[in-house]
User: Fold these one by one.
Assistant:
Number 1:
Amino acid sequence: MKMENSYKDLSAEIKEVAKKVLAEEDVDQLLGFAQGEFSGLTEPVIIKKAEQAQRMVFTEDATPMLSKYLLEYKEKKQAVVAKPCDTRAIAYYLSEDIIDRKNLVIIGINGCPGLKDNTACDECDTRNPVISDYQVGEEISSAELAAELKGVKYLLEDMTPAERKEHYSQEFARCTQCYACRDACPVCYCDHCYVESNQPEWVEEGSSADKDMIFHLMRTMHMPGRCVNCGACEMACPEGIDMRSMTTHLYHKAEELYDFRPGISPEQPPLLSDFSKEDSEPGFL
Ligand code: SF4
Ligand code: SF4
Ligand code: SF4
């Protein structure tokens, strides 16, 4: 976990900014986090009145990607408390034109302190918002971020193809195809997912080693230029399966080969819809 801004200070600032946004901006609702009244857990919440802003918090358990919740209500004008990885997902939505910027008020979190048990936070290279209307917390400087990332290694870097096959065969053997990883992912948002398609039937019903591998390989192949490396997929998995290292590998390959980082700007064309004759063609996996 990173500790640049305390959760307590961020929570206090979020309450104030949320109150202001609900009082002064013409929004239908604000998405954020609150302490569950009965569970005591940090839960996503929708509030509509300034006086409800007192309930809001930001904690090390603020795992769900509120960016994805925006898509549920995209006809409404919404404000959202956005971690930097959420702002990248939002910038990606804007680049694909699936949400209207005029319907968004983004409260971005600077110097994100990260989340408990989320390994993506240890590798996170975007800890300030890439797009926002309001901000809370102190920014982390690029020098500080570079110092924190020095020496970080990614799982697939040193693995041979045979070791990768062995690793993922063991990981996916525990997969029950519950699709919680897909549902938690902010950039898995197709109206009709290929896993539920029966014409053609890409993945047969039921779980087996082959079917699980097909599901994960196909999902991974949908991720180049989309994955913002937030770790929500892995955090959602009830079996503790490592699938993020595959999408993270593509995340780094897109940068290395095409100088492309998903969700860095709303104006950036999606990776797979933009090409030049000079592009390298090494294949991704
Ligand atoms: S991955 Fe998201 S939650 Fe984790 S440190 Fe980065 S911006 Fe924060
Ligand atoms: S694939 Fe995983 S790490 Fe990548 S954007 Fe989706 S949830 Fe986040
Ligand atoms: S959340 Fe875990 S168990 Fe469920 S489909 Fe994804 S990898 Fe498999």
Note: The chain has ten helices and five strands.
Number 2:
Amino acid sequence: MAVLKPGETLMGLSLAFGGHLTHGAPKTFSSTFFRSVQYELKKDGTFDWAAIEKLAKKEKPKLIICGFTAYPRIIDFKKFAEIADKVGAFLLADISHIAGLVVAGVHPSPIAHAHIVTTTTHKTLRGPRGAIIMVTNKGLKKDPDLGKKIDSAIIPGLQGGPHDNQTAAIAVALKEASSAAFKKYAEQIVANSKALAKELNGYGFDLVSGGSDNHLILIDLRNRGVNGSVAALALEAAGIVVNKNGVPFDPNPPFYPAGIRLGTPAITTRGMREREMVKIAKWFEMVIKEVENEKLPTNKEERSKFIKDFKIRVAKNKKLAKIASEVRGFCKKFPEP
Ligand SMILES: Cc1ncc(COP(=O)(O)O)c(C=O)c1O
């Protein structure tokens, strides 16, 4: 609302490829009130810079958004900035997922490259649910009133009054995030993610982009013949919580995607390290093996009945119950702080 008039064009990564709903996905404010153009990833799960530049030159968006929801690699903010600058667009870096890693210096910062940087405060930043919008020096150079425009887009544009309790809680989170202990925490998140990715690769899991540079791993389960929704339910029955997730060029509908997404921030907070990732990956393999014959029907009508019955089957599955009991014992050694 600060940089676009209704109907003007924004460009973001498609939801199906790991972009966020608010980056121009259908049915959201970002595509209802604005004209949304979406870029995608290559087959290997990385960016096709020539295609993104070509799209930007053709569509001339006023705003380009980078920063993602399901992208396991380092984001090259400089490359996005070069494209945005070529077409005169504002570049917004939404670092919601990686803000804690950026603060700790384990992921490059977008501050020198973007005009606007946004983040939620409840992901790797490990704070309360909330958000921050930052205008960079580059942003002020492009439009000296950008800060004021964003302020008034919030109040009165979208909000009536401030949520002071939330702002105070964010301040506490930021103080924590500036400590040496937090830097160590963020470094361990990435070390754990890399270790878990390596173990999962070893079991033959097909990791999108081949691995992870940050806090998350995206697995394409098609080579195991298990649907993401089936895998997520089985893992949860075994005490391992992940979410079903689409993968690039996913042939399945969003409700039954081909993959799952998992992250290491919470287990790192509990004190788990590389050694524990070896154990987790082993349980992972055992669970997926156990449900490899559970084929999701291709027929739309049969699918919901299958999932309903599958939930009953997994609740009664003795192997999964045994793993769940081991996971429970394991977690007791790593209590929540
Ligand atoms: C890139 C990105 N931006 C923004 C958000 C918004 O977060 P929430 O809806 O949890 O406030 C998310 C959440 O997943 C995200 O991944």
Note: DSSP finds 13 helices and ten strands in the chain.
